[in-house]
């Protein structure tokens, strides 16, 4: 699908490898023994503020009935009806009932990446704003194994679209109103909502440290449930993304708002009662006031790329100094780094180390170049993203 051009890591990347602390506490033999460390639906309307967030759905049967949907029929396959009148799209309409054993290994294997690419030449030729030259490609490196030990907050997201089962990547983030017990996962808007042309995706589930030993697709055929999902599956019971993404109002080249392509999920375990952060033993804070691309040092992007030559079951990372990408004059510039990861890594977190020596999430993978591989771009997380995140934390933090 895309060509991959290997290159050496840029100056400064090696230092970040040791500085980026994405690890969990606990023993290598039993990741579920992790020590306890010391949601989400609504639309981010940018400067206009957020709409009032509703309560978490206590009775999904009633929520579905409001839209003429029977829960029993939904669980038996009614969710496959993507007719326009059945595809819920408004910020307050998200529903995601848990369907037990839906995401089995064979179904996970069938899931495809939601490809998001853009012709940056068309963008830069349209007086879009300030765009730096394309960064040199950086060859993606597989994360050390086991993944739960070296990058525990990173995981894989599975969901259903009208085209079939799909995959993205995501990151466990700290909840400021529920310290040590976060149930929040950061990802891309296009991993949860189809944007202007559609509505909310369905059957959204997050698996932290997916395929913990980095087994090949063939080896996964005989893997145990704990090897595939060492901490279990966590289903989204509420999701928030930006109003700009839902309405697709800013990017002149595509009709999609990649500058606002971010989302936060509130999740609950398919089994058990502990929070996501307690279960995994790790979560990362989000930095909504990061320096611009011209001022920041090296960033790292993590994810599960699936488009060739990758296979979607192994975790990779790229380290590079970001540059600017501008798609629309009225919107913020995006971060862009050299990276050969492909689709499937969408939604994966971008991290940097602040002067306090702590690792923060600062962006997420949104788009790559049309027709090739070599770089990724992600949104700057400003005031609108912070408002969305804090309202979710305040509303659902103790849920």
From TrEMBL:
InterPro entries: Glutamyl_endopeptidase, Peptidase_S1_PA, Peptidase_S1_PA_chymotrypsin. Transmembrane segments: none annotated. SUPFAM superfamilies: Trypsin-like serine proteases. Residues 28-59, 123-144 are annotated as: Disordered. Keywords: Signal. Residues 1-26 form the signal peptide. This is V8-like Glu-specific endopeptidase.
């Amino acid at each position: 699908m895309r060509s991959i051009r290997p290159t050496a890591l840029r100056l400064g990347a090696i230092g970040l490898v040791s500085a980026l602390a994405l690890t969990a506490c606990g023993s290598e033999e039993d990741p579920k023994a992790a020590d306890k460390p010391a949601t989400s639906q609504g639309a981010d309307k940018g400067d206009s503020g957020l709409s009032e967030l509703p309560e978490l759905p206590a009775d999904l049967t009633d929520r579905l009935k409001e839209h003429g949907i029977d829960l029993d029929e939904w669980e038996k396959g009614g969710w496959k009806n993507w007719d326009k009148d059945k595809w819920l799209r408004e910020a307050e309409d998200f529903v995601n009932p848990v369907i037990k054993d839906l995401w089995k290994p064979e179904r996970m294997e069938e899931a495809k990446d939601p490809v998001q690419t853009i012709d940056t030449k068309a963008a830069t030729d349209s007086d879009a704003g300030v765009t730096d030259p394309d960064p040199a490609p950086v060859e993606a490196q597989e994360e050390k194994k086991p993944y739960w030990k070296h990058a525990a907050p990173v995981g894989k997201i599975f969901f259903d679209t009208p085209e079939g089962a799909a995959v993205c990547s995501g990151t466990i983030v700290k909840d400021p109103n529920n310290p040590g017990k976060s149930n929040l996962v950061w990802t891309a808007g296009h991993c949860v909502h189809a944007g202007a042309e559609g509505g909310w995706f369905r059957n959204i589930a997050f698996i932290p440290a997916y395929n913990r030993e980095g087994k090949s697709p063939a080896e996964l055929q005989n893997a145990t449930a704990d090897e595939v999902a060492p901490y279990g599956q966590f289903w989204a019971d509420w999701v928030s993304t930006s109003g700009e993404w839902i309405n697709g109002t800013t990017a002149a080249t595509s009709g999609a708002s990649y500058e606002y392509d971010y989302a936060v999920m509130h999740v609950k375990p398919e089994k058990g009662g502990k929070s996501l952060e307690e279960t995994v033993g790790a979560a990362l804070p989000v930095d909504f006031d990061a320096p611009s691309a011209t001022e920041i040092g090296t960033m790292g992007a993590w994810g599960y790329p699936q488009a060739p030559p990758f296979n979607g079951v192994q975790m990779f990372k790229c380290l590079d100094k970001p540059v600017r990408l501008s798609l629309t004059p009225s919107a913020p510039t995006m971060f862009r780094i050299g990276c050969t990861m492909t689709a499937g890594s969408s939604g994966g977190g971008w991290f940097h180390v602040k002067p306090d020596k702590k690792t923060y999430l600062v962006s997420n993978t949104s788009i790559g170049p049309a027709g090739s591989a070599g770089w990724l771009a992600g949104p700057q997380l400003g005031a609108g993203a912070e408002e969305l995140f804090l309202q979710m934390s305040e509303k659902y933090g103790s849920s």
